[in-house]
Amino acid sequence: MSTDTQTLDIPKVSAYLEKHLEGFEGPLEVSKFQAGQSNPTFLLKTPSRNYVLRRKPPGVLLKSAHAVDREFRVQKALQDTDVPVSKMHLLCEDDDVIGSAFYIMDHIDGRNFMDPRMPDMDKAGRAGVIDEMNRVLAALHEVDIDAVGLSDYGPPGNYYERQVARWTKQYRASETEDLPAMNKLIEKLTASIPADDGQRTLVHGDYRIDNMMFEKDGTKCLAILDWELSTIGHPYADLAAVIMQWQMPAGTEGRGFGGVDRAALGVPSDAEFIAKYCERRGLDGIDNFGFYLAFCFFRMAGIIQGVLKRALDGNASNPQRAMKVGAYVPVFAENGLKALEGK
């Protein structure tokens, strides 16, 4: 089986879509999106409309990773909710078609911000985008998981116990060097998991501005992308993921606000963003936020360690970028320790 993540067998894809996708008419033109490290994603252009194909990478993969079937299921379940998602068309789990499972969804003709400073936006525009990001996050956590058929989308029990155990295992499986900061973070995080407060919601798992599509000339979110890490869990993990990202260096690599005058840009402070989220969900506030922040740094370190391992093994979606991203593992681990210690 081929381990090529850069190309698709266009004749095979066309033949499959002609048979299974209503309204599909070729010829088909294919190009690969360079953003995203996990599941290779392709733009499919046809004379009448455009689609997106998102596939599981071929080759040997970590168990439970790259679950495109889960991505398809959750986005399909959210079609008629207040959470914006692309329209799902079909899921193919037959590896014989292109070498791994894939799904087809509508292409969203919008804009994506790889840099949260949004250099091409004015102050009011930035404020609007960030507020929309806040609104959509609150809406996501208010979805009635029973009503949309997702009550079994994640196991019961303490979400953080489950996640810390899972990502520790994933990290160890893709470990390439001994990192004392990561070892210490795993130990401390495991020892400080808070008691379950009963909140059980849909969580995205990688909620940040570059995983969202917005109107080309407005601030409305058209779709949340990249649902690979979604599950039923605890909502503060998503909220803390936003705050975690903002603490990173500014620019398209760190994708944060480190060293940036946010007020001058029209961007709220961490506290203001958290307060607005709590207001939208009717919450009085959040205790022990340092734990949730540390957890997000830990999980992201585990994720990018996997990206680095795939690059070294030769089956990363974007090998050059994967090596750059992988260099951040110790940074995330150290920041996780600081968050846990309240620094």
TrEMBL record:
Coiled coil: none annotated. Keywords: Plasmid, Transferase. Gene3D superfamilies: 3.90.1200.10, Phosphorylase Kinase, domain 1. The keyword Membrane does not apply. It holds the Pfam family APH. Residues 30-253 form the Aminoglycoside phosphotransferase domain. One of its GO terms (molecular function) is transferase activity. Its EC number is 2.7.1.-. This is Aminoglycoside phosphotransferase. It comes from Sulfitobacter pontiacus.
